[in-house]
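Example record

Each entry pairs one chain with its bound ligand, S-adenosylmethionine.
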Amino acid sequence: MPKYDPKSLKAEEFINHEEILATLKYADAHKNDAALIDEILEKARPQKTATGCVCRGLTHREASVLLACELPDKIKKMYDIAEEIKLAFYGNRIVIFAPLYLSNYCVNGCLYCPYHLKNKTIPRKKLTQEEVRAEVIALQDMGHKRLAIEAGEDPVNNPIEYILECIKTIYSVHHKNGDIRRVNVNIAATTVENYRKLKEAGIGTYILFQETYHKESYERLHPTGPKHNYAYHTEAMDRAMEGGIDDVGLGVLFGLELYRYEFAGLLMHAEHLEAVHGVGPHTISVPRVKRADDIDPDEFDNGISDEIFEKLTACIRIAVPYTGMIVSTRETEQVRREMLRLGISQVSGGSRTSVGGYTTEERPHDTEQFDVSDQRSLDEVVRWLMENGHIPSFCTACYREGRTGDRFMSLCKSGQILNCCHPNALMTLAEYLVDYAEPETKKIGFKMIEEELAKIPNEKVRTIARENIEAIKSSNRRDFRF
Ligand code: SAM
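Structure tokens for the complex follow.
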């Protein structure tokens, strides 16, 4: 039987089934132990330091107790601490991105995904470079600066060379004042050599959802194709880091397996990356299975309620305070609003999940990967965020200034976020407002910028940020950053 070892490079040792079962048993035994829960929450609370504040995070066992807890007053305390952590490290900034679907050719048999090989009802499509350019122009005209590219796994139709060519094309398009400044990549698990090529192509985060950490379920849900190999998939982030990629993004597709099992697995994965590579995941995504062509989410028994989903969000925020959290347009406006409060730091907006979807007038459904619940335009999302007190940020500065991996974490811990991320967010918001916003959004946005500039502690930084914003308003100068 594989033995639990967070430092091991073997999937079944760092995501250890027996350890997860023991964790769930421990969590059940202590879920209403008020004294222990208080102790765990005390450990999780941000601690003030001379330069800012730090958080210690939680182990998968401690965090699993919180997730299992049923005591209303402790759950309330948990949510308050999640909010406190969110504000301490991410402030009221929300980073915005959009997915870009390159190809839905896929050789895998994933039971939850409409792109699976046996689905003959969807048209298969792969963007040409001309089409990539057109999609990027459409995205730039909306105001996007950061993309996550998505593709099925197909070594013939979407080989790594195709993905690399698309990345090159995306970075080369500069339409009007538009610019895509960070391309994150969500493609199937691959080799160290290919990860090195992605790194050289200048990608931001490499994102790969585990789908489920439960090996037996994983193999059942991925009956055919290269993705069937649980170990190869689960060990992908180690290969990515070996290939030089500093920022990796984890995720679970909630609904496939029991959420408490997935939660423990997710945190064990984060602990493993920290133990082996000295840096945890840059982001964690929390997708839930959605209806799609050929896919009925009700066929999966483990769907979770909005209430549990919010508790999960708060528990992840508390357990891994330095990891950004992403929610997509799979979720409705109401769910996204609550999740933003409890820990989400990145959202997608104006998304189309079909291949070529941004260049068509009507939202196309035939090649869509899943139904989009939040169908608002990017401008509506930007305005909504501001009306709810969040600063929409199009910032990509960290990775372009080399602040990736542990250097990004150091920035978080150094207390310099208000002198760095905050002005960057405001300057990129100003770009959006000048170049793309509707008049009402512009009005709300510049009022917000004025109020938020006053919160920058360093006077010199504040003055420079103000000058740069004036330059954005009065000229075509763009891309200022700290
Ligand atoms: N083919 C790559 C892979 O295997 O990882 C890329 C990812 S795919 C384009 C992006 C993600 O969408 C998948 O990892 C999966 O979690 C999610 N997904 C697939 N079907 C879904 C569905 N019906 N509802 C919600 N999310 C889904």
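Residues 112-113, 150, 152-153, 186-188, 208-209, 211, 227, 253, 287, 289-290, 292, 295, 330, 369-370 surround S-adenosylmethionine (CB under 6 Å).
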